[in-house]
Amino acid sequence: MSWGFLCDLLSGVNKYSTGIGRIWVAVAFIFRLLVYVAAAESIWKYEHDEFECNIRQPGCENVCFDHFFPISHIRLWALQLIMVSTPSLLVVFHVAYRENREKHHNQKFYKSPGEIDGGLLCTYLTSLILKTGFEIVFLVLFYKLYDGFKVPRLVKCDIRPCPNTVDCYISKPTEKMIFLYFLVATSCLCIVLNLSELSYLSFKYSIKCYLKRYIK
Known about the structure:
Keywords: Cell junction, Cell membrane, Gap junction, Membrane, Transmembrane, Transmembrane helix. The chain is mostly helical. Helix content is 69%, strand content 5%.
């Protein structure tokens, strides 16, 4: 898999999205994927090699690093990007099913291939709920794993085989903190956009159904 595949996936769903959904795709492209690939990935590239403790006890440094960074920030972000994008596959599969059905029966079943209605609406709403859920789960996971959204300059470790409490230093903590805040902020923005689009579509089609019943 490559990040290009993820870009193609999001671009394919873009034509079935509302205006809010297109903003979400732009945020996912520019403020998350491109920043991740161009900058954030290189900052955390050698985090284990640059993690230093003021002791030469064999194994102590590795154990301390594993304790404070059970999962690498950069790998967790990569997993988050993949997970919040995969619900879009539901929309892609549903559209492919519609097109295949029309081709198989050689007749038109749906008003417009780019219009969200009927079963495609339910699939689209489900994808929005899943994306929002994944975003929240990963934010909570980040907070729990790293004891808040912060990158300390110094951590104190007293885990065996360290003979006593040792000081360990994290490289480029300020730079990492800036990118951490940036990526957390974009994640929160994506949650707001997903909830806004969910509310907009639910309200729009609730009014539409109500008017149909009223006219009848």
